[in-house]
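Morning!

This is the sequence you dropped in the shared folder:
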Amino acid sequence: MQPLVIVTPLQDSHVQATIICCKKLNLELKVRSNGHDYEGISYVSDVAFVMLDLFLMNSIKVDVEEGSAWVQAGATLGELYYAIANESEDYGFSAGRCPTVGVGGHISGGGFGVMTRKFGLAADNILDAHLVDVNGEILNKTSMGDDLFWAIRGGGGGNFGVILSWKIKLVPVPKNVAVFTLKRDLEHGATSLVHKWQQIAHKLPEDLYIRVLLDRASEGGDAEKNRTIIATFKSLFLGEVEQLLDIMKQSFPELDLKSEECEKLSWIQSVIYFAGFDPYGPREVLLVRTLDTTQTRRRFFKSKSDYVKEPLTETELEDIWKMYDDPRVKDPHMLWVPGGGVMSAIPPSETPYPHRRNIYTIEYMAYWDERGSEVENENINWVRRLYGYMEPYVSKEPREAYINFRDLDLGESKDGNATYEQAKAWGIKYFMGNFDRLVKVKTEVDPENFFRNEQNIPVQPHFEEHA
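The structure's back. Tokens below.
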């Protein structure tokens, strides 16, 4: 069902009025910061609802002297990075690589990116926040209290109130950074390289980030017969090219990285590079708000997530490659993102995001162009089959998942009023041992469950923490 009304507030009082009005009229409220919710639950529902779209609340005030910035929830990551770089070349921010993602929802779910191994999540770098609670009151870090401030930094958007703005801690970046992108197919050692990557990527110096994208390509001739897996290694190093080459020679000589395959960029150029654009072009490309600025047409996708604690063997990797050999699925992907660095030093209970002790994260994705077609069903089913196939190789009890890669396959409540036991189906996977504390906070600050969605934190009257 589409929204009855779309409210596009220009100031804080408009958000307050919308919450109070929806409560009086008993209308469900959905909050959107920029529309990147993977399952669309911020802008569709099975019941009548009002959508609060914050995209016009996107002001950013950078304080270079303090090393901080206030950013409204409707701003995009691209707008934030652009604003920081325009004020100083000495600072950046540790958050996601996609410039069109809204700041409000991204930070609410944790927010990892290419500098997470060095500086932690976006949510780990929050100094203050302004939030409108269920009573229409504006709270800051002091007035909301420690528990609620803890909960909003990774406990998922739309659970505890409406984030108006975040005060973020800027992170120092060097004048020059180094990047590279290398592609290797199966015929050129992709399997052994991915196997080695699993063993060392999370152990590399925290200044070095190397991710792997695993997709399928055809090598000439008959495209249906000559399929191969392409492993794309993409890296950011917070330092000079020469330092990067020394580290790679010692830790990952099998990749055979050469100086001419590296580029020296500024930090803001590296942001543009990881967003899929020409790093030497105008930085204003970060201000474009289209759904996916790296693609020339609108596409649909299904995504799921996993966390890995032990490397897979080469034989196990080869078995996974066979899952790609499905001609009905045109654009299958797995993205493997390294853990380690400072993430391993942060306690899992420091924020609601608990996935601190894994060697890498997996995002499964498949894309298609026609909505509601048989192709759509084939792609969704492929992602689910691959996810099922990977079960022996990923985290267990629980099988962890990332809230910002929201996945309704894990369970859902159509009316948003799931019980504690029902919500555990997704809550334990997203938040692990932090789930009970989130339930306690939710029960205290929103006892009538006004802020709800298909996978919200539940209210538990007379709550006692479960063993």
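Headline: The longest helix spans residues 374-389.

More detail when I'm at my desk.
O.
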